[in-house]
Sequence to fold (286 residues):
Amino acid sequence: MKYAWIDTYRDRYSVSRVCRILDVSRSGYCQWRRRGASGRAQANAALDAAVAAIHRSSRGSYGRPRIVRQLRDQGQPASAERVRRSLQRQGLRPVYKRPYRVTTDSTHRLPVAPNLLDRRFDGWLPNQAWVSDITFVRTGEGWLYLAAILDLASRRVVGWSMSERIDADLVCQALRSACWQRKPAPGLLLHSAHYRWPGWLSRMRDARLVRSMSRKGCSPDNAACEGFFGRLKTELFYPRDWRKTTVDHFIEVLDSYIRWYNATRIKVSLGSLSPLEYRESLGIAA
Fold:
């Protein structure tokens, strides 16, 4: 390792001086250079390059377990310990979650739909059950709110909308987008947080969807959508200070992220496939 460090910085510092500081002989360093890197060092260098490429393509979101799976899928199997050391050598770390905060106001006296989903997040076919919720981010032009709709079959984002206000138009636009893209049959179950706007209820009736609602203050009832928001915040919202950007620019970045999330980001619960890959594995066109 000392010889490798000397070789990296040999054009910046005197080799003789660095050898004295590191307590190694100059002749030993010269012999090491003539021998070239060992097979193990070459293997580590190749692994480092592959790990760094996966970490970069995942937007810094993949940690050791997902990188191990990606390497295996690419025909470059490596143990979890080797990947851990590679990440450590390169100073690479995945982004981490922050504490959960409640964002939905449930203090109202309007009719509440029953929780028909009842935390049954798995085992659905495409366009049988969707989930929806709202989150927010602060930009240089003020707060921006995101309404998203996910298909529980593949966890794919099938519709989303952003606005500077939390109102019926925000969630209705997301629903219009989802219905336009997926064209669900009547009877699809749509589970949401406490959406209480008359416009939303009207839109649900027009689309002939079955309404389900989380219980008051019980975020696990909508864990699938909360999980997506958690990843979104960890991988996109938190790493940058969006207070220095415009709303239009942030929406462009978010659109790019959602496209990447649907097409590329692997999920362990889907057999280490992305939402689109999982949907295709069911023999259904994207």
The chain has a mean pLDDT of 84.
